[in-house]
Amino acid sequence: MGSKQDDIRLSELILESLEGTIQPDAFEELQRRIESSPEAAKAYVDFVLNHAIIAPRAKTPSLGAFSSDSAVVNWQFWNELAETEKSSPAVAETEPVPEENKHFLVRDSQVERVTHSVNRFFLLTAVVSSAALILLIALAYLNPAKSMLPAATIMDTYHAKWVNSASSLAEGDILYGKNEPLHLLSGVVKMEFAYGAKVILEGPVTFKTVSPDKLVLESGRMYASVPVKATGFTVMTPSSSIIDLGTEFGVEVDFAGSTNVHMFRGKTSLLAGVLGNVQTSCILETGQAKRVSLAGKLQDIPLNEKGFVRAMDSRANFVWHGEKVNLADIVGGGDGLGSGTINQGIDVATGKAKLFEKATTSLQGKSQYMPVAENPLIDGVFIPIVQNGTLTISSKGHAVDQFPQSAGDYWNGIFNGGWHEAANFSIPSNHLRLQGIEYGNSKNPSIYMHASQGITFDLNAIRQRFPGLAIHRFETVCGISESILDYIGNIRQKRPNEPLPIAGFHVLLDGQLNFSKDIPAGRSEVICIPISSQDQFLTLITTEGPDGTHFNDWALFATPYLYLEP
User: Fold this and answer.
1) Are 162 and 126 in contact (CB under 8 A)?
2) Distance CA 231, CA 114 (A)
3) Model pTM?
4) Whether residue 451 sits in one domain with residue 364
5) Which of 16, 124, 484, 489 is 20 to 30 Å from the Cα of 76, by its Cα?
6) Residue 21, φ and ψ in degrees, nearest 5
7) Number of domains into which the chain is organized
8) DSSP string, 241-260
9) Alpha carbon 410 to chain centroid distance?
C-alpha cells in the first residue's frame, strides 16, 4: 500500500468503523482511501474477514453507513450463535514449545485421523454468515455509503412544488446521498446538511445531495450559511466548485451552465472549471462576486445583496432576501421593508399617526412620554424635557440621567421624509441634504426630527417580525441639512446676526447613551452601533445645541437601518 504510517492510519480507520466509533470526517477519509486505492480496498476486505472471525460475539461491521434494520444484519441470528458458543466444549490448550527447541523442524509426523460429525447448525451458520459477510463487503466495496448515509434534512418548505418522485418531500424528511437529481419547480426549501451547513433553495432549481458535506447545483439558485464546524462544505456546478471556508454565500447557475457566486460574509475558495480540468482559482471575500463561464473564465460582477432567499419561516409566512430594516419606513407606518408612506409620521403631542404635508410654526411640547398604540414597532415618542434630573424614554421606565436640558420647543413632528418650509422667511419647501445627497425618498430614506424630539423603537417587536434573524447593528448618518446654507441669507434679512445652527444628536440603547454629539450645519456624522440580543429599546433624540435654540435645526437621521443576520 503506502508508508508504514499510512498502513497504520488505514488500520485505525477500519477498526474504528468496525467498532462503530468512527467520526464523520474519519469515515469520509476511509471512503476516499478505499475508492482511490485497490490495495486499501483489499486490506479493508481482509480486515473485515479477520475481524468477523475473531471479534467477540460476532459483531457485524457498522461502517456508519448500514442501518441497524438492514436485511443483512440479523441480530437474533447472531445472538443464537453466541449462546451456542457458550455451551460448546472447551478447546484444550497445547503446551508451549520450549524456546530451545524452536529451531527443530518437524518434516513428517503421523497424525491420527479423527472423523467428526457435521453439526448442521454450524454448517448453516457458516453458510448464512458467509453470505451476509460477502454482501456487506460487496456493499462497502461498491461504496453505497453515499446512497445510504443521510446527507441533509428538510427543515422547512414554503409553497414548494416538486417534480415526480420528490412530490411528497416535506419538513422532517431526510435526503440521502445520491446521484439522482431533485427538481423543485417553485417555492422555497430550507435544509440542513448532516455536518451543519444550512442551505436554502429557490425554485426552479435542480440539485443533488451528494453527501453530508457536498451539494451539486445543476441549475437554479441557492444560499448557504456554513458554521465553522462545517468548513469545507462544497457546492459543485457545471462550471465551478465552491469550497466554503466558514461563510455565507449565494450561488446561481443559469441554463447555459455559467455560475454566479456572491459572497455575503467570510471567505470561500472558488475553482473555475470542472474537476480534473480546473482552469483557475481564487479566494472570494466578503462583498465580492464572480461569474464563471462554462469554459472556466472568471469575471467580476456586482454583489447582489437581495438576490437570494437567506431566511424563511413558513409558519410566519416570512421570506427574507437580505433586506435591511428601514426605521424611516416604520415611522411611516410600514413594516421596515418599504411599505410605509412618505411624509407620514407621529405627532409627539398625541402619539397618533399623522401625515405631514404642510409646515407649522414652532410648537411647545410637554414633558410626557407618549406611547404609540397604533404602531407596535414603535414604543413611544416624547419631547426631551428633563424632570427631576432624569428623562424617561420608554414605556418600561428606562430613563437617562444628566441629559442636556431642552426648552421643549419643536417643529411639526417626527416623520418619514425630508423637507422643510418656512414661509415667514421666504423659504419654500425644499429637500433636505447631507453630503450632497437628497434624503426623504424611497431610495435615500430619512427620519426628519427637527429639534427637539425623541422616538423609541421596540427591538423585540421588530425581531418578532423577522423570525430566525438577529439584529446585528444600527447604522445611520445624522446632521443638519445643508439646504439651510441655501437660505441663510433669507433668514438674515429678518435676523441679521443669525448664526449657523448647531443641534445635538443622541442614540441610546435601553437608556444607555451610545452616541451623543453636537453637530453644526454643513457637517454630518456616521453612526454605527452594535446591538445584542439583550437590547430591547433603541432611542433617537435631537436637541438644541449649545446655542440654546432649536431655530433652524433641520435635523435628520438619514438611511436609519437595522442590519439583520441569520
Assistant:
1) no
2) 63
3) 0.71
4) yes
5) 16
6) -110, 5
7) 3
8) EEEESS-EEEEEE-TTS-EE
9) 43
